[in-house]
Design a protein that fits this description.
- The chain is of the alpha/beta class.
- The protein has a single domain, classed as Rossmann fold.
- 45% of the residues lie in helices and 11% in strands.
- The protein has 16 helices and seven strands.
- The protein has a four-stranded parallel beta sheet, with helices on both faces.
- The radius of gyration is 19 Å and the shape is globular.
- The structure holds adenosine-3'-5'-diphosphate.
- Adenosine-3'-5'-diphosphate binds next to helix 2, helix 7 and helix 14.
């Protein structure tokens, strides 16, 4: 496989996207062996796009008949979103043979996540009735979010400028970011009942509207009664950055990959990149975006 280095780690090109070699066998195994159920839902994203937030919002929305969002016993108050909505390929990574993880603990409708790009998803996933919700974020903010995340979880050295150069060339785990975005973007246009495309920035700006859109897409729209009794507002509040960042469950413990839960909650804002990226660097990424997204209808 073609090999490069990004963020101090070797990454390999598989089906036109870059992957860390240690994860690739389990990703391929997941794509080969995973059998979806008709009502599975997948949260998909390019890393650092708000996956954790969308996991929480989708969980709270889909499971609201079992767990009332305003009550003290809600699972999101006591468990990290990555525990409740696991990355499905990591379940295969953790299985000793990478083939048959025990998924029986996840109640139906099951909710999983993955960073795998759309063109690589397996036919059973694409051809079944299961649904996919994608969260997309401004490439500048995803990059800066990754930069902080990487500094927190790794002791490897490297400058922001070097990482930025690589990022602009598309050399980044699950990159190129533009093809990741565009794969799901096009799929959402071609199959609107199968793929819902959300943007981090829209969720920040108008969470009520976006949440209703998501519930409708998931075939569990909010009733007028739910709307009037504040269910939507409770979900938004429960999953808000301020609330989630303070919870003990998100300040202690680690993910399956031994990453502290707290590293998934940093600033939670749009536009923080201006504090880190120089005008010259910004010009470069703007040019890449202009070229890659031209005529796609996707803009930031
Ligand atoms: P920042 O580093 O810009 O703060 P992912 O979940 O895909 O790893 O993305 C992490 C980014 O989402 C981080 O961005 C994190 O702070 C932000 N985030 C996590 N929970 C959030 C929430 N409830 N609301 C808004 N942003 C959130």
């Amino acid at each position: 496989l073609p090999k490069e280095k990004a963020w101090g780690i070797p990454i390999y090109l598989y089906q036109h996207f870059w992957y860390r070699l240690d994860f690739l066998p389990s990703i391929i195994s997941f794509l080969k062996h995973f059998q979806p159920k008709h009502d599975d839902v997948f949260i998909t994203s390019f890393p650092k796009s708000g996956t954790t937030w969308l996991k929480a919002l989708a969980f709270a929305t889909m499971k609201r008949s079992c767990f009332i969002p305003s009550q003290d016993n809600h699972p999101l108050l006591h468990s990290n979103p990555h525990t409740l909505v696991p990355f499905i390929d990591l379940e295969f990574y953790n299985d000793p043979n990478n083939v048959n993880p025990d998924l029986s603990i996840f109640s139906e409708p099951r909710l999983f996540a993955t960073h795998i790009p759309f063109p690589s998803l397996s036919s059973p996933i694409l051809n079944s009735n299961c649904k996919i919700i994608y969260i997309c974020r401004n490439p500048f903010d995803s990059f800066i979010s990754y930069w902080h995340f990487y500094n927190n979880i790794s002791s490897r050295k490297g400058t922001l400028e070097e990482a930025f150069e690589r990022y602009c060339e598309g050399i980044h785990p699950f990159g190129p970011f533009w093809n990741h975005h565009l794969g799901y973007w096009k799929a959402s246009k071609e199959k609107p009942n199968k793929v819902l495309f959300l943007k981090y920035e829209d969720l920040k700006e108008n969470p009520n509207f976006e949440l209703k859109r998501m519930a409708h897409f998931l075939d569990c729209p909010f009733s007028e009664e739910e709307e009037n009794s504040g269910v939507i507002d409770s979900i938004i509040e429960l999953c808000s950055f301020g609330k989630m960042k303070k919870l003990e469950a998100n300040n202690s413990g680690k993910t399956m990959l031994k990453i502290d839960h707290k590293h998934f909650f940093r600033k939670g804002e749009s536009g923080d990149w201006v504090n880190y990226i120089s005008p010259d660097m910004a010009e470069k990424l703007f040019k890449v975006m202009e070229e890659k997204y031209s005529r796609s209808g996707l803009s930031f």
